[in-house]
């Protein structure tokens, strides 16, 4: 049977790694027509290892894209364009800010708004990890390699490399609320002034609490908007409207959500749906198939 044009697979780290990494992803593209994927802002850092040709990433909004064989992308407030074509294979991790400290030895703030070559963060370990992943026979074997390599990094980390406790509490309150918590309430809870809490949060994450809340709320809306793209091929599936998505995510109205999309994604959700046309024909958990 003919192989699908594109495959994406999701895996999960070992329990001890879950505070640092939320999920693993594998992607394989075959004979992909040239296209541009728009990477959206997220509350997670992106850790990517290319097992074939490098990714061409344009994070500046200019005309030139830079190749990366492996990278970590910090927390961003703007979309990132990734050029894709031909046959490509990569593995990525959803890295938490706590994971940036524990596994990479740097706070998320040092990586905010940047893409950093993996070898600049891991040294020769970057090449060793890439080689082990390239030799894995299937996606499940890739997850095992990641578990082993990341556990080794965690075991060597200093216990002194810890997040600011007040900033961490504020971060988790923002996540738990879906980005709808009032920033003034967070300052009151912390016992700090609005400015003091903002400064502590910026030092840890490279974002203000308000910026982080905006990204988390946007990210919730993006996950729901993606369901519109998945259901357009299945007319009988229930489909929420953009106004319903705006209400569910805590926006005042659809126009409010659209303004956030224009700022954070560079376009309204309807345009993103039209332009995001990667041919994902398989998207599954697990990973027993070939990598």
Helical region count?
A: 11
Please give the share of residues in helix.
40-55%
Distance between the termini: 17 Å
**What is the approximate shape?**
globular
CATH superfamily of the largest domain: Jelly Rolls
Poorly predicted regions are 279-283
CATH topology of the largest domain: Jelly Rolls
CATH class descriptor of the largest domain: Mainly Beta
Provide the CATH architecture of the largest domain.
Answer: Sandwich
- Beta-strand fraction estimate: 15-25%
Task: State the major sheet.
Answer: 9 strands, mixed
Secondary-structure element string:
EEEEEEEHEHHHHHHHHHHE
| β-strand number | 9
Structural class category: alpha+beta
Number of domains: 2
Mean pLDDT: 88
Task: Return Rg in Å.
Answer: 19 Å
Organism: Microlunatus parietis
InterPro entries: AraC_XylS_family_regulators, DUF6597, Homeodomain-like_sf, HTH_AraC
Protein name: AraC-like DNA-binding protein
Keywords: DNA-binding, Transcription, Transcription regulation
């Amino acid at each position: 049977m003919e192989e699908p044009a594109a495959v994406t697979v999701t895996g999960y780290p070992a329990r001890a790694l879950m505070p640092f990494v939320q999920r693993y992803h594998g992607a394989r593209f075959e004979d992909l027509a040239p296209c541009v994927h728009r990477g959206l802002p997220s509350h997670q850092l992106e850790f990517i290892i290319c097992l074939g040709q490098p990714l061409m990433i344009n994070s500046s909004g200019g005309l030139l894209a830079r190749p990366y064989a492996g990278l970590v992308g910090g927390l961003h407030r703007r979309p990132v364009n990734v050029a894709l074509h031909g046959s490509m294979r990569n593995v990525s991790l959803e890295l938490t800010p706590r994971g940036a400290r524990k596994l990479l030895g740097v706070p998320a703030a040092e990586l905010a708004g940047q893409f950093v070559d993996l070898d600049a963060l891991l040294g020769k370990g970057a090449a060793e990890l890439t080689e082990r992943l390239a030799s894995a026979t299937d996606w499940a074997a890739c997850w095992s390699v990641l578990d082993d390599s990341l556990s080794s990094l965690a075991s060597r980390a200093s216990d002194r490399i810890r997040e600011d406790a007040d900033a961490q509490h504020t971060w988790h309150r923002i996540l738990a609320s879906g980005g709808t918590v009032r920033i003034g309430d967070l300052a009151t809870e912390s016992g700090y002034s609005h400015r003091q809490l903002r400064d502590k949060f910026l030092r840890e994450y490279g974002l203000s609490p308000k910026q982080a809340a905006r990204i988390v709320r946007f990210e919730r809306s993006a996950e729901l908007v993606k369901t519109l793209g998945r259901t357009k091929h299945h007319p009988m599936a229930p489909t929420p409207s953009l106004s319903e998505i705006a209400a569910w995510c805590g926006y005042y109205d659809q126009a409010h959500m659209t303004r956030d999309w224009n700022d954070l994604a560079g376009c309204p959700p309807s345009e993103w749906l039209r332009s995001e046309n990667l041919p994902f024909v398989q998207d599954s958990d697990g990973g027993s198939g070939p990598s």
